[in-house]
Amino acid sequence: MNLNPYVNIHTHHVGEGINVLDVGEGKAWIEDEKRRGIEEGQEVFYSVGVHPMKLGEIGEDALTCVNDMLCTGRVIAIGECGLDRRSPVCIEEQERVLERQVELGEKFRKPLIIHCVKAYSELIAIRKKMKSSIPWIIHGYNNNEQILRQLLEHGFYISAGTALLNDRSNAFHLLRHVPLNRLFLENDDKTVGIDVIYSVASGILGLTVEELKRVTRDNLKNVFAI
Ligand SMILES: [Zn+2]
């Protein structure tokens, strides 16, 4: 029997299944890539982007680097990029850098993987203002129902991760409110295997793991054409 692969839409380390590996703005990526062997059962794609928490330490040329990287094979997304109230850089500057990345996404037709902390109204406003037509995927969603509803109304995709392991989390309680055709799963920078995330999510959704893998595989195909 040919099983579907796990789809891990946002990770910082490669594991089983199809991985969208976050390589930051991409500088160190090529060297790492030469060193890393791919094991059987693993497939790797990349996302490159400027993280709002790193804005203070990296210069403007990071966006040029992202631009160059987007022409590279197997780079399928921009991210993680977004807005974070905890960043030492002011929200206006973060918005400016995010808007530049949205422009790159539109230019290269690459979806965005979004990191957002306490700035959802600003985030939604930017998507509206820029009339963005590419998919935006909120990674690690763990916020309330009202924000979830707004994000869905505005066409966002939702990715849930290790918060699902906590049955008192928003993610756990709201997972069933995410339409299956907008859902992704991830393990981010955590050591928890993607198989564990799928197992917990399938229990919450009342699907088998294989059915859930089919759902995210179809979504990957629809969003990234891979
Ligand atoms: Zn991450």
Structural description of this entry:
This is TatD family hydrolase. InterPro entries: Metal_Hydrolase (IPR032466), TatD-like (IPR001130). Pfam families: TatD_DNase. Strands 1-2-3-4-5-6-7-8 form an eight-stranded parallel sheet. It is of the alpha/beta class and 226 residues long. Helix content is 38%, strand content 19%. The model has no long low-confidence stretch (mean pLDDT 94). The protein has one domain: Alpha-Beta Barrel (TIM Barrel). It is built from eight helices and eight strands. It has helices spanning 29-35, 61-69, 91-108, 120-129, 145-153, 170-174, 194-205, 209-224; strands at residues 7-11, 17-22, 42-48, 75-84, 112-117, 136-138, 157-160, 183-185. Helix 7 (194-205) packs across helix 8.
Distance between the termini: 22 Å
SS summary, helix count: 8
Write down how many β-strands occur, each being a DSSP E stretch of 2 or more residues. Answer: 8
Approximate shape = globular
Strand order of the largest sheet: 1-2-3-4-5-6-7-8
Bound molecules: zinc ion
- Overall number of structural domains: 1
Order of helices and strands: EEHEHEHEHEHEHEHH
How would you state the average pLDDT, rounded? 94
Q: Could you give the topology of this structure?
A:
Layout: E1 7-11, E2 17-22, H1 29-35, E3 42-48, H2 61-69, E4 75-84, H3 91-108, E5 112-117, H4 120-129, E6 136-138, H5 145-153, E7 157-160, H6 170-174, E8 183-185, H7 194-205, H8 209-224
Parallel strand pairs: 1-2, 2-3, 3-4, 4-5, 5-6, 6-7, 7-8
The structure holds zinc ion.
